[in-house]
């Protein structure tokens, strides 16, 4: 059983696609650039806000992409509250893991300020022992630095830790850091994509994630 669980944020704990899509399309429109369907935007998410904008504003200069990026950050600060929800069953799972005294953390490629603000907003009981988003000067996922920093800060070992994520980048990050991984399929990458990077476990539903993370004989879950 894993006693330390590192959660990805977007597409794993929260459904953030509508807020991201609104903010991105508003930012693109501000710069007279073509907008995208929500389905297309889903495929742009995962590598942080700048890369999101670079994928949306293809063939634009770096200066233009940076301007779209700045507009996106401004728009997203207004858009995320109305366009984001916690996936069904996640609050209960987090509560159960806390009652089992698991150590919990979040590692996201979303800008750090949004990551902490949104986690505080959606999880006001502060169940996470450490929350890290993308920070200036720190390599983002799939670099293992974030995982290593969390393990060090929380005095956890690679053996007892697992990273739960919805994107191939999360599974590759776990492998690069030498920890186990669980791919969940309710987020932004499909089963085939996730299978191609060989996660240790695959959860096709919140119930399957509960099965993997919590032993059957713990009364709190049954
Ligand atoms: O905002 C992103 O690009 C990705 O965020 P995530 O790492 O929480 O999935």
User: N-to-C terminal Cα separation, in Å?
Assistant: 17 Å
Radius of gyration: 17 Å
Helix content: 40-55%
Q: Taking strands numbered 1, 2, ... along the chain, how are they ordered across the largest sheet?
A: 5-4-1-6-7-8
The outline comes out as: globular
Mean of residue pLDDT values: 95
Q: What string, H for helix and E for strand, traces the elements in order? A: EEHHHHEHEHEHEHEHEH
- Summed up, the helix count is 10
Number of strands: 8
The total domain count is 2
By secondary-structure content and strand pairing, the structural class works out as alpha/beta
Q: Extract low-pLDDT stretches.
A: none
| Fraction in beta strands | 15-25%
CATH architecture of the largest domain: 3-Layer(aba) Sandwich
Which sheet architecture does the biggest sheet show? Answer: 6 strands, parallel
- The CATH superfamily of the largest domain is identified as HAD superfamily/HAD-like
Outline:
With 222 residues, the protein is of the alpha/beta class. The chain has two domains: 4-15 and 85-213, 3-Layer(aba) Sandwich (Rossmann fold), CATH 3.40.50.1000; 17-79, Putative phosphatase, domain 2 (DNA polymerase, domain 1).
